[in-house]
Amino acid sequence: MTYCPPMPVTTPYEDVTVLDLTHEFGRYVGRLFADLGATTIRVEPPEGLPDRVRMAQAPSPDATAAFTFLNASKKSTVIDVADAAGLAEFAALARRASVILVEAGGPLYDDLAQLRRMAGPRAIVTSISPFGRSGPRAHDPASDLVLQAAGGIAWLSGRPDAPPLRLPEGQVTMITGVYAAVATAIALFDAESSGCGHDIDVSAQECIAHSLQNSIQVYDFENRVSRRGGEGTRDATEDTFACKDGRIFLAAPRSLGVSWNALVTFMRDAGHPAADYFSQPRWEDRAWRLSREAKEQFRANFEPFTREYTKEALTREAIARKIVMGPVSRVVDVFSDPQLVHRGFFTDLVTAGISLRFPGAPYALSEPVW
User: Fold this and answer.
1) How far apart are CA 71 and CA 306, in angstroms?
2) To bridge 235 with a disulfide, which of 48, 193, 218, 253 should be the other Cys (CB 3.0-4.6 Å)?
């Protein structure tokens, strides 16, 4: 096997310093900038920011993993901004910083005017909070569950005959982080060309509301409110299925005629009897294909076919025939994926004396974005 070294990655923010005082919904912002070469410094009071305090009070592998992921690549310093000497120390850092990230409930969030005086004239001050700096809920606390509900994503999750569901893990932290990072990057670009800084007000609720897939467009164009559909919204083919060495994912609804027709042709070319079964007229009925009976019948007739093939063989045929089908990777499979190995995606990270294989940045830039 020929080894090809990973391609060099340009870091467009290598001259940017980010001061990160966030503790919940803003933590991913600093991580994203650090991945792109910025020097991100996590500024903590002597007792630690709230996320570190929570982890210390209720230690668990999951909490440690989440903390490590959201703060990877950051530096850290302890400064007591409630103390005059500490505030002067922070002001010296702020004058040299390009970006300052603050969050409701954390240091200096309620002192925006003072923070702006300490920051350089071209600095970007990004404030992150559950509901924004203004409005009737500006000072309300909120959790991931509350924001998923208030932002609307919980309404779209779950079964139609059951209550709304919270999506797993810290969805609000991740979505808010992406939106805040993009807004900050745009403002930073303008500041470098105009010489003028910016204050950015990020509402986590608004970030969630903006990420509701096509729900707003459905209301605009069809005058109806999108509802959760659970498994009932899926075509019988949209699922994972067993094969010789694992599972594959398939999507071949009637709306994807190319994928469905190519799938039936694949089975017919292989001489499998399922091709005749799936050529019956009822498989043309899009409504019936959403039923439980259709899903059970599809799996019962399709899996005897896929069990004759490996994931690699099925994926190869899918690419050649334009079928929407591919392998379902286990975690261990991801580490040995040839594409990720070639790109040098995983890196070694040492934390608390433990060496971990850790995901790197999901982007490689040949030159600065501007």
Assistant:
1) 42
2) 253
**pLDDT of residue 4 exceeding 60:** no
**Can you tell me the distance from the alpha carbon of 198 to that of 114, in angstroms, rounded to the nearest whole number?**
14
Structure tokens at 42: 């996590």
Which pair of tokens denotes residue 213? 């897939």
| Element at 323 (helix H, strand E) | none
Confidence label for 370 from pLDDT (cuts 50, 70 and 90): low
Mean pLDDT of 264-280: 96
CA torsion, ordered 277, 281, 286, 289, to nearest 10 deg: -30
In this predicted structure, which of 97-111, 223-237, 278-292, 314-328 has the lowest mean pLDDT? 223-237
What are the DSSP calls for 43-94, one per residue? EE-TT--HHHHHHHHS--HHHHHHHHHHHTT-EEEE--TTSHHHHHHHHHHH
The structure tokens listed for 29 are 């912002």
Residue 56: left if φ>0, alpha if ψ -120 to 50, beta else—which one? alpha
pLDDT value of position 1: 45
User: pTM for this one?
Assistant: 0.78
Q: Residue 260's CB: how many other CB atoms inside 10 A?
A: 22
Question: Does the pLDDT at position 342 exceed 50?
Answer: yes
